[in-house]
């Protein structure tokens, strides 16, 4: 009791509701904080302030200390690079700092698997996706890489997956080259729907059917159907020009032009195959065959053949009693 006859008690106990215990006679009264919740919530972001203050090594898992150390070292190193003016050369050699840190922690790209390739090479895919040794798996942007790949003319679809800690898988679905399209002297590789895949750069696609002229790329599928009707003549057809975006003119391997009608082109090409097989039409001295009329075949002779024919008609004996 104090001099006023009041019972002494702990101020901490009165204010915060914690139990106290006297240590030894003569000592001051020390409140023992036993972790009781006071029910009061202060300004601390996660509720009431903890009643016990533990040392840092007890509050933090020992497993996090290497991460803290690496982060600290990375921060010090980055600051040194910036202050020393070496940041640009560092990025060129090792990549961005966050990629370097991720690779240091074991989150690099240790294995990359690419499947679905037919015409493309692995190097072309990696370059298009922006994958270099300086990139880490952790900070690699899958969506951006997919958009870059699908922007390539030869790639229809791309799927990319991260498999932590260090593997990346890429599945490619290529556009299938269907035909060649010549326009204004430039030859392009096109898909079956007429989409331009790429310019013809080498002989890999020289065997594809060739269509020529404005709009011919959109009609390439129709031309391939016509080729199927050509039978034994198919190997002699070099290509076809779409005239006025309405009808085809075939170019034969011997330079002969075959004009097909707008309607009934399949029947006309079958008729041409019969004429070539039965009457050797394509072996004669002609430069063009017109099949646009269903009931007749019109041919155009070469200059030499035309001159010979004119000479023959000139020297033909006149019928008796005929007019001069």
Draw up the topology in text.
Blueprint: H1 11-16, E1 20-21, E2 30-31, H2 56-59, H3 65-84, H4 87-94, H5 97-104, E3 111-115, H6 122-129, H7 142-150, E4 155-163, E5 167-174, E6 179-183, E7 186-190, E8 196-199, E9 210-212, H8 220-229, E10 237-243, E11 247-252, E12 257-259, H9 265-279, E13 286-290, E14 298-301, H10 303-315
Parallel strand pairs: 3-5, 6-9, 9-10, 12-13
Antiparallel strand pairs: 1-2, 4-5, 6-7, 7-8, 10-11, 11-12, 13-14
Could you please describe the fold and organization of this structure?
The chain is of the alpha/beta class and 324 residues long. Among the domains are: 111-174, Ubiquitin-like (UB roll) (Roll), CATH 3.10.20; 179-312, Cell division protein FtsQ/DivIB (Rossmann fold). 31% of the residues lie in helices and 21% in strands. The protein is built from 10 helices and 14 strands. The chain has helices at 11-16, 56-59, 65-84, 87-94, 97-104, 122-129, 142-150, 220-229, 265-279, 303-315; strands at 20-21, 30-31, 111-115, 155-163, 167-174, 179-183, 186-190, 196-199, 210-212, 237-243, 247-252, 257-259, 286-290, 298-301. The protein has a 9-stranded mixed sheet with strand order 8-7-6-9-10-11-12-13-14. It has a 3-stranded mixed sheet with strand order 3-5-4, with helices on one face. The model is unreliable at 7-20 and 27-51 (pLDDT under 50).
């Amino acid at each position: 009791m104090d001099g006023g006859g009041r019972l002494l008690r702990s101020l901490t106990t009165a204010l915060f509701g914690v139990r106290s215990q006297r240590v030894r006679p003569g000592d001051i009264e020390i409140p023992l904080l036993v972790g009781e919740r006071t029910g009061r919530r202060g300004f601390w972001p996660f509720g009431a302030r903890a009643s016990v203050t533990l040392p840092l090594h007890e509050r933090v898992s020992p497993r996090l200390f290497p991460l803290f150390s690496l982060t600290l070292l990375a921060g010090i190193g980055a600051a040194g690079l910036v202050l020393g003016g070496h940041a640009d050369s560092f990025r060129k050699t090792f990549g961005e700092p966050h990629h370097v840190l991720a690779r240091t922690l074991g989150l690099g790209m240790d294995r990359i698997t690419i499947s679905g390739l037919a015409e493309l090479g692995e190097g072309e895919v990696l370059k298009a996706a922006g994958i270099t040794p300086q990139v880490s798996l952790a900070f690699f942007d899958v969506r951006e890489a997919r958009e870059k790949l699908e922007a390539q003319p030869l790639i229809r679809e791309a799927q990319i997956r991260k498999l932590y800690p260090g593997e990346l898988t890429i599945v490619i679905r290529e556009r299938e080259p269907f035909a060649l399209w010549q326009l204004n002297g430039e030859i392009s590789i096109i898909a079956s729907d007429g989409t331009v895949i790429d310019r013809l750069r080498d002989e890999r696609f020289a065997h594809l059917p060739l269509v020529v002229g404005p709009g011919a790329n959109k009609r390439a599928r129709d031309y391939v159907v016509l080729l199927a009707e050509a039978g034994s003549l198919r190997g002699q057809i070099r290509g076809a020009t779409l005239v006025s975006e309405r009808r085809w003119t075939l170019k034969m391997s011997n330079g002969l032009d075959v004009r097909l009608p707008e309607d009934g082109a399949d029947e006309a090409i079958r008729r041409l195959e019969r004429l070539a097989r039965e009457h050797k039409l394509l072996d004669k001295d002609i430069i063009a065959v017109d099949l646009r009329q269903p009931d007749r075949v019109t041919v155009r002779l070469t200059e030499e053949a035309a001159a010979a024919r004119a000479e023959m008609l000139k020297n033909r004996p006149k019928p008796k009693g005929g007019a001069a």
